[in-house]
Amino acid sequence: MNPEVLSHIDRLTGDDLPAYVYDLHALREHVRAVRAALPERAELLYAAKANSDARLLRVLADHVDGFEVASGGELGHVRALFPDIPIAFGGPGKTPAELAEAARLGVSRLHIESAHELRLLTTVLGDRSIDILLRVNLPLTPGPVALVMGGRPSPFGLEPAQLDGCLAVIADDQRLRLRGLHVHLASGLHAPGHLDLAEDVLTWARDWAQAHHIDLTEVNIGGGMGVDYAHPDQRFDWAAFGAGLHRLLSRHRNLTVRIEPGRSLTAYCGWYVTEVLDVKHSHGEAFAVLRGGTHHLRTPAAKQHNQPFRIIPVDTWPHPWPRPQARREPVTLVGQLCTPKDVLAHRVPVRQLRCGDRIAFAMAGAYAWNISHHDFLMHPAPAFRHLDKAPLTADVS
Ligand SMILES: *Cc1c(COP(=O)(O)O)cnc(C)c1O
After folding, report:
1. Which CATH class is domain 90-261?
2. Which of 166, 269, 338, 355 is flagged as catalytic?
3. Residue 25 Ramachandran class (φ > 0 left, ψ -120 to 50 alpha, else beta)
4. What is the pTM of this model?
5. Neighbour count for residue 321 (Cβ, 10 Å)
6. Pocket test for ligand 1, best of 263, 269, 367 (most atoms within 8 A of CB)
7. Which residues contact 55 (CB under 8 A, 6 or more apart)?
8. Nearest Cα residue to atom 13 of ligand 1
9. pLDDT tens digit string along 372-393?
10. What is the domain partition of the chain in residue ranges?
11. Is 338 a catalytic residue?
12. Which of 4, 204, 283, 306 is the most exposed place for a label (fewest CB within 10 A)?
């Protein structure tokens, strides 16, 4: 945690909590380093679904080649913020209205998920043309990862054999410009695993293109760069990934490779900060009840992990009775929801955790607030604070 973030948290009053605190400076440094690690011929998109907060997108926009969006809502949001930035539009179940909007707003790439979707597109294009990638569900096994999206039965993308039907539609329609393939097979891969997969994907894509006499110029190999919530310091090795991609590209000379990470770009810049409302013991186990919960930060419930956190001690205790606390024992951190699933961290050993202390959950910048069930129990929403360095500015938006 940057000292600026810590001192900002110290200055928040109880009424300001819970709060999402975004460290825009850290985000900028991170995305800059990611971009610098990648070969020039690799394009970097940010998958907006990880966190579409406008202030974060503004920082990212200066360092990425564009944004990947997965709905008409995200498309409109990103286009309104950035009239000119390249946008790739992917995701299953695009409606005719969304396809028409993609054509109208001029997305730079549309990722086609099925032959039906491609045919629907031809009915809404009018006299516009559009650049497309066919999303393939390749029979490749990515190994043990968090979320497998392909290589087995999946609603995402086309089977290799189904590509032929799409090629026939494209051959018949001048408005459809096939630019290449899109393959997002898994999330949660470490750099060596991701490179192995990328190598298999590019080899497959080259063979496929040769067999179909297609001049393949680009492949989007997706996102899914691993984020390890159990080891916050062990980050995806972008330097190794970039070097490996460089070697790979030297064997695919005319190919542009594009990646579209989400989580690995924004997870680390966000903190969900709150306070301990109560500490209780029940059947021999300690529970800390926090202001807020998984309706603000659903990530640990969704991924079934302990959200990493740090305790920020608050030494004042305003009441005449003894301060509820846990000492040198495992504590389960729960929220205010009336469900046993409202757990942010399970049986984590602490030296001391007291009622009134603050908790800052780390790695809350991706798939956090925006995947949470905000309205459940009608608790107030958190505040959102965006910190940047020198001069330190914070605002509530
Ligand atoms: C979700 C998604 C991404 C981003 O995945 P991360 O794990 O956040 O990097 C990229 N591409 C597609 C098609 C996706 O569905």
Report:
1. alpha beta
2. 338
3. alpha
4. 0.95
5. 6
6. 263
7. 22, 24, 386, 397
8. 184
9. 999 999 999 999 999 998 544 5
10. 90-261, 268-387
11. yes
12. 283
